[in-house]
Amino acid sequence: MFQRTLLTAMAVAAGALAAAALKTILEHKDDKKYDDDEEVRFIRISDDEEETAGYDASARSEQVQQICAVYPYLNPDFVEAKLAENEKLLEEYPPETMVALTHSVHFSDSNAAEEFSSIMEEAGYICVDRSDYAVAVTRKLFSEDNAIVSDILNVANQTAALNGTYENYEIQ
Asked: N or C: fewer beta carbons within 10 Å in the chain?
């Protein structure tokens, strides 16, 4: 019982941290002195790998550019689409509503799926392997402005960093 309470508290704290990071980005979207230390990343890259991203967001809004700087593995189209969902999510899940957010991801390599699960468990997510290549990660968090979108971007970025595919999310 104590472990479950502790895990829930850790999950809520991690969600609040992710929401705060995205909120900071959005609040500072016109501030040219955005501090890169405020970002949230789960990515673990080995010494022999290079951290590179394949997307150019320079033709996008400054808000999307800043978010893509925090989440370098995400396609700017994906970022724009998720940002556009924020208002709808806030209407459906008003602030202070506890939600369970489940993300489904897929990898072409079982080692990447295992690494993803390890990283996400360390970050406070509950991981369920659906196959050698598919993983579902769940976290409970309080809905706040950009909290759900921030969590989606965090998980999708981690998935992309390990060459996986972010499939979808479900809110309960």
From this structure: N
